[in-house]
């Protein structure tokens, strides 16, 4: 499920619910800008300063995000906290009562399983030939090791 927490955080940052659509649009704009620019920046950083710098910048970005999120006040819960098993049973009863959710969940499980299996089986076999074809085999071998 992409950006599940964002669905709940964005409304908390928008005090006026009339502007929620604009807030969502700005959040998505930032999200897609980072997706567009991030890999280029990361690749340039790893190529110039090494993989340790890339991992370090990634770690620092998580701390920056955590610091920025401290300013968002969570609303009080709608109901008293319950045990995990109680929540699990309540959620499962909702899924059983909604047949399309069962079909959707089964489809997602199959897609993830097939996708993970195909990726796991082909990724090592495809990484080096693709790297050789674009001329970065040495860099790839240096980053992932022998």
Mean pLDDT: 74
The gross shape turns out to be extended
User: Which H/E pattern describes the elements?
Assistant: HHHHHH
β-sheet strand percentage: under 5%
Find the structural class using helix and strand composition. mainly alpha
What is the chains' assembly state?
A: single chain
What count of domains describes the coordinates? 2
Number of helices: 6
Report on the architecture of this protein.
The chain is an all-alpha fold and 146 residues long. It folds into two domains: 1-75, no CATH class; 82-146, no CATH class. Helix content is 80%, strand content 0%. It has six helices and no strands. The model has no long low-confidence stretch (mean pLDDT 74).
Set out the fold topology.
Layout: H1 4-13, H2 20-49, H3 51-69, H4 84-97, H5 99-134, H6 137-144
Helix pairs in contact: 2-3, 5-6
């Amino acid at each position: 499920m992409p950006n599940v927490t964002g669905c709940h955080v964005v409304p908390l940052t928008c005090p006026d619910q009339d502007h929620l659509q604009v807030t969502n649009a700005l959040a998505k704009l930032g999200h897609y800008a980072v997706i567009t620019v991030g890999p280029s920046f990361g690749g340039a950083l790893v190529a110039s300063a090494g993989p340790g710098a890339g991992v370090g910048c990634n770690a620092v970005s998580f701390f920056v995000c955590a610091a920025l999120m401290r300013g968002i006040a969570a609303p009080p819960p709608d109901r008293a906290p319950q045990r995990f098993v109680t929540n699990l049973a309540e959620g499962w009863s909702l899924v059983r009562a909604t047949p399309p959710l069962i079909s959707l969940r089964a489809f997602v499980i199959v897609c993830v399983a097939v996708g993970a299996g195909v990726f796991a089986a082909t990724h090592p076999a495809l990484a080096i030939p693709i790297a050789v074809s674009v001329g970065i085999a040495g860099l790839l071998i240096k980053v992932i090791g022998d």
